[in-house]
Design a protein that fits this description.
single chain; mainly alpha; Cytochrome Bc1 Complex, Chain D, domain 2
Length: 331
């Protein structure tokens, strides 16, 4: 009997020790995690959109965790514990049937793009296998006052009327637009994320020679096309023709073909909104790519855009990008 009591008591003690070590202590430590830079609680409509995201199984196909690996660089900087301070539970996901969404509001920073993509993904990403969520939208004869109809390409638009989002679609897009990362100070270690040359620290005199050295092999148009296809074609299209009423064309664009590439570089580095192109004003924001890409990568993208689709803009170097970056967004 005494032996049974010792065994039972020992087993109970081991159980409680394991529970303490594996559950209680880690849980307490996680509860003390401070929010990362720019991390805020979700607003009411964003939280509602998160519920829509979960209820429709979006986390089965999309992750929300960026690993410190070269292949994840396209999605943003590596995730840190502070990024998830206000998420319960965390929607990390386990399979990337679709792209990671950790930083989707920076990579696809247009509500209109999100609505078009949600209505029919093939309208902006022809090779997409994501299902259509057209049931989250309504077709009406005329959009109510204050509601912007979704500017669908003709091939995907209804034969009559206009498409407007339902409240569920508005909430889901609000949640997606909340998914963005703030850059971390280098001291906190964004290991695995390549810091843009000339982005911060050091003077233009020290970064420009380094950037010029990166460009020594000349423009890498093939690399620029790859980066464009992965990051820009969803809005501006693979043909460079953009999308009427939503995203401006790059083919024949005066800025892209200008002999002075400064404005073109500035737009790619720091983003743009409300620009009129050929008399058409585009309110969808162009995301800033300066934090995500190095000077060399920005130069490759711009050189591709300036030589594709019949464009004839002057080619640039990483040193040109570094010079514009050094002046800052307000210049």
């Amino acid at each position: 009997m005494r032996q049974l009591i010792l065994i039972a008591g020992g087993s109970t003690l081991v159980y409680f020790m394991l529970a303490l070590i594996m559950g209680v202590i880690p849980g307490f430590e996680l509860s003390q995690t401070l929010p990362g830079p720019g991390v805020k609680p979700l607003t009411a409509i964003e939280a509602e959109g998160r519920d829509v995201y979960v209820s429709n199984g979006c986390s089965y196909c999309h992750t929300q965790q960026v690993r410190p690996l070269p292949e994840d660089k396209i999605f943003g900087r590596p995730s840190t514990a502070g990024d998830f301070a206000y998420q319960t539970p965390e929607l990390l996901g386990s399979e990337r049937t679709g792209p990671d969404l950790t930083n989707v509001a920076e990579r696809r920073g247009s509500q209109l793009w999100q609505y078009i993509h949600l209505y029919n993904p093939r309208a902006v990403v022809p090779q997409s296998i994501m299902p259509s969520f057209a049931w989250m939208f309504r077709v009406v004869d005329k959009a109510p006052k204050g509601v912007t109809p979704v500017p669908l390409p003709k091939a995907f638009a209804p034969s009559s009327g206009v498409v407007i989002p339902s409240h569920k679609a508005e909430a889901l897009v609000a949640y997606l637009m909340s998914l963005k990362q703030a850059p971390l100070p280098h001291a906190e270690g964004s290991e695995g994320a390549a810091a843009p040359s000339g982005a911060s620290g050091g003077s233009a005199q020290t970064t420009a020679p380094k950037a010029a050295a990166q460009q020594a092999g000349g423009a890498d148009i093939a690399h620029g096309k790859q980066l464009y296809d992965d990051n820009c074609a969803a809005c501006h299209q693979a043909t460079g023709t953009g999308m009427a009423g939503a995203f401006p064309p790059l083919k024949g664009n005066a800025v892209v073909n200008d002999a002075d590439p400064t404005e073109h570089i500035h737009v790619v580095l720091f983003g743009l909104q409300g620009k009129a192109v050929d008399g058409v004003k585009y309110d969808s924001p162009m995301p800033a790519w300066g934090q995500q890409f190095s000077d060399k990568e920005i130069a490759d993208i711009i050189d591709f855009e300036r030589s594709a689709w019949g464009n004839h803009g002057k080619q640039i170097t990483a040193a040109d990008v570094a010079a514009v970056r050094a002046k800052g967004a307000g210049k």
